[in-house]
Amino acid sequence: MGVYLVQFLSGLASASALFLAASGLSIIFGVTRVVNFAHGSFYMLGAFFGYTFVREVGGGAIGFWVALLLAALAVGLVGLLVEFVILRRLYKAPELFQLIATFGVILIVQDAALWVWGPEDLLGPRAPGLTGIVRIFGTPMPVYDLVLIGVGPLVLAALWLLFNRTRWGILVRAATEDREMVGALGVNQSLLFTGAFVLGSMLAGLGGAIQLPKGGADLLMDFGILAEMFVVVVVGGMGSIFGAFLAAVLISLLNTFGILIWPSGTLVLMFILMAVILVVRPTGLLGRPESGGHKTEVGVEQALRPAGPHYKIFIGLLLALLLAAPLIVEEFYLVLITDVLVLALFATSLHFLMSTGGLVSFGHAAFYGGGAYAAALLVTYAATPFELALLLAPLGAGLLALVIGWFCVRLSGVYFAMLTLAFAQVAWSVVFQWSDLTNGDDGLLGIWPSAWASGTQVYYLLALAISAGGIFLIRRVVFAPFGYGLRATRDSNLRAAAIGIDIKRQQLAAFVFAGAMAGLAGGLFVFSKGSVFPDEMSIPRSFDALLMVLLGGVDSLSGPFVGAAAFTYLHDELITFEYWRLLLGLTIVALVLLFPQGLAGAAKHHLGRYLKLEAGSAGRAKQADEGRPA
Amino acid sequence: MSDTATARAAEQPSLSIRNLSKAFGGVQAVNDVSFDLAKGELLALIGPNGAGKSTCFNMLNGQIRADSGSVRLAGEELIGRSPADIWRRGVGRTFQITATFPSMTVAENVAMVLMSQRRELFSLFRTAVHRHRDKALALLDLVGMAAQADRPCGVLSYGDLKRVELAVALGNEPRVLLMDEPTAGMAPRERIELMGLAARLVSDLGLSVLFTEHDMDIVFGHAGRIIVLSRGALIAEGTAQEIRSNPLVLKTYLGEGQIYGRAEG
Ligand SMILES: Nc1ncnc2c1ncn2[C@@H]1O[C@H](COP(=O)(O)OP(=O)(O)O)[C@@H](O)[C@H]1O
Ligand SMILES: [Mg+2]
């Protein structure tokens, strides 16, 4: 009895920090329409700042709470900086670029925290005066947890007052509901945006800080909380603060009781809860149906045209060069180009979803890693021959995509993106935690190709054949009736439905196809490295794919290949530095700010008029007139 | 005229709408509306802005779900079916604010319908480029858009988009065609041409057409029968002659400060 009650209370206590962070995310998104992917990093920073401030000023009972508030303020300042330097320039850019930029911030924060606080997990300081325990029906319960339980509702009430009783808060609400109207009222919009961003950041910081005595601070907090926040926002209902509170409580309770009932299955429970709620109430617990169909805009409206003659020659030359590579370059470079080929297929599969389907997935690595693990598991446990395992990798990934996609296509736009990320994080956690099967963090080793394909040169040629074949297949599908149907759903939901297209089914099929192609890339990957680790399914890997698409430009079908090459080069250059994440993050932010069309996009913008490499990427009307297939 | 109208009403109607209602929050957008669309009839639905005309259309094609009421297509209930399902049963429509695929060419927009109708949209290996092009061009010729077949829809003028939408709606040879302000954004001569086409479709193919229109010259000149909606409720029904002299209709329009032949917004 006591155990359950304490577990219940402990769940409520955890809910507070989660609610604070999620409500901040929700407020920022409501006003600025930016999904702040760095929100988990702000939460982590709150914990680290809190740790430092408590040591500096947190001696007494009052000092402790002052230190937590200072931590929130400090994170607010970081938020101010991020908004002022980066996001402010990107509000009018396609959402993808905002998201990539905030991902750059994640990397920067990760290394900055590593540099300042070191790699060790920090044990949270205890709250002076609240270190004791109380016994509830004989079961001990930390007093601090009881205090935490009060913090969530307290902040909820404060936010309610802010949004209903103050002029600024009412403006924020108005902006959330109707942005044009607020603009028309003559409100200083950029001030409003900055204010909302800072408030949201502070809430994340406070959330990270108040959980210090319970959970401490470590460098892995950012992605864990990010996925949980997304689940809270999706389950609670978009833009509903009360919904976020309810969802945070629900999920935290599920976690704490899950540990009692099924210790290794808490994530699966979360998955099931999310699934059930989304099936019963697609708009979340307290969400209203999306009005006006807010869609993720990836900045692709141009007509994609089949390759013109120039472009075909260009591709032919590139292929010839790649085929001849074993005769020209050393093995070291062949390995590198093999990596590029694998990643190019991975990125092309994501690009297909994004550009043809308008479906921005933030969890595409689930299928890349899924394919790699499918092959590795088959080899490890079923002694499957290399050839068959490589063939089954896309099948496994496709099945995973079928399950995940079945839920995700119920949502659209950024909510779709959030859900893909949350599911990918669940998939990663399963692989990470289920060490009996997957060896957890130690990975699966000794996954090598058959003897005939094990030479570097032969494997390179095999990778070239499969990757090029996969990319051509994707291209073919883009211009097949299936691709056109998918593009129709992207262009206009209304019209697509009115001419008999089953939108969800078309999108799900595309999701599965893209997942299978990513899985094929994953299969190629695992046999080229001989091993696979959970990293291949992680959120950073998903972002790698987005980054490659971005580097290559979202408009062009050849972009992902350029992007994969640029990414591999960048990665190899940077990885030698200790703080390579910091450099990568800065590079990403700089690239987004300087070349909002991506590298290939920018190059084409300048060269395209003369070279006409790929029709349909420079001018709009003109291209469609001229770009008729040969 | 009155005789043919009664004669048609006696046949099995194409669409039979009964007690259709829809509220948005506190606004009763459509209130207990009943009418029939006879086979081979050109029926105009008129009423001031905000009367509930578009909402009616949206319920007929399944895009929004009616709160109550029934819509039968040749006896078969449509309420509760998806837009895609209703389209397959032969109800095509155009939108007040045009909905086309801006990244595709005009011809491809029409070809999409043909692919959808033939259930080809899950085909992975055939090419969609120039698929069903001849048929698409023929449809575009019908609405006078063949010359612009290879322009992307994203760059067309509003009036041209309306015509593309009509070609798209005709693509699967529907039994019933719903046109929401089909001539908005067109020059007077284009309007008359387009409505002339609609009238031919009705007489030659036996298509049943329900349309909304603000231009009263068009309505009185082309509609076989007219129904009038005001604040969600049906207030009159009859021939042009009858509607023109209906005191309630006059009051509605004059009361709203709108005179026949109002300019397009
Ligand atoms: N999606 C919606 N949400 C809320 N109110 C709506 C919606 N669609 C229409 N309305 C309201 O319903 C009424 C009828 O609108 P509508 O059917 O568009 O009229 P009409 O087409 O005759 O001009 C109007 O008051 C309008 O504001
Ligand atoms: Mg209307």
TrEMBL record, chain A:
Pfam families: BPD_transp_2. GO terms for biological process: amino acid transport. CDD domains: TM_PBP1_LivH_like, TM_PBP1_LivM_like. Its main location: membrane. It comes from Pelagibius litoralis. InterPro entries: ABC_transp_permease, BCAA_transport_permease, LivM-like. One of its GO terms (molecular function) is branched-chain amino acid transmembrane transporter activity. It is found in: Cell membrane. It comes from the Bacteria. Belongs to the binding-protein-dependent transport system permease family. LivHM subfamily. This is ABC transporter permease. Keywords: Amino-acid transport, Cell membrane, Membrane, Transmembrane, Transmembrane helix, Transport. The keyword Repressor does not apply. The chain crosses the membrane at residues 6-29, 36-54, 60-87, 99-118, 143-163, 229-254, 260-280, 311-329, 335-353, 389-409, 416-435, 458-486, 507-527, 547-570, 582-603. It is a multi-pass membrane protein. One of its GO terms (cellular component) is plasma membrane.
TrEMBL record, chain B:
GO terms for molecular function: ATP binding; ATP hydrolysis activity; L-isoleucine transmembrane transporter activity; L-phenylalanine transmembrane transporter activity; L-valine transmembrane transporter activity. GO terms for cellular component: plasma membrane. InterPro entries: AAA+_ATPase, ABC_AA/LPS_Transport, ABC_transporter-like_ATP-bd, ABC_transporter-like_CS, BCA_ABC_TP_C, P-loop_NTPase. Pfam families: ABC_tran (PF00005), BCA_ABC_TP_C (PF12399). Residues 15-256 form the ABC transporter domain. Gene3D superfamilies: P-loop containing nucleotide triphosphate hydrolases. Keywords: ATP-binding, Nucleotide-binding, Transport. It comes from the Bacteria. One of its GO terms (biological process) is D-alanine transmembrane transport. SUPFAM superfamilies: P-loop containing nucleoside triphosphate hydrolases. PANTHER family: AMINO ACID ABC TRANSPORTER ATP-BINDING PROTEIN (PTHR45772:SF7), CONSERVED COMPONENT OF ABC TRANSPORTER FOR NATURAL AMINO ACIDS-RELATED (PTHR45772). This is ABC transporter ATP-binding protein. The lineage of its organism: Bacteria, Pseudomonadati, Pseudomonadota, Alphaproteobacteria, Rhodospirillales.
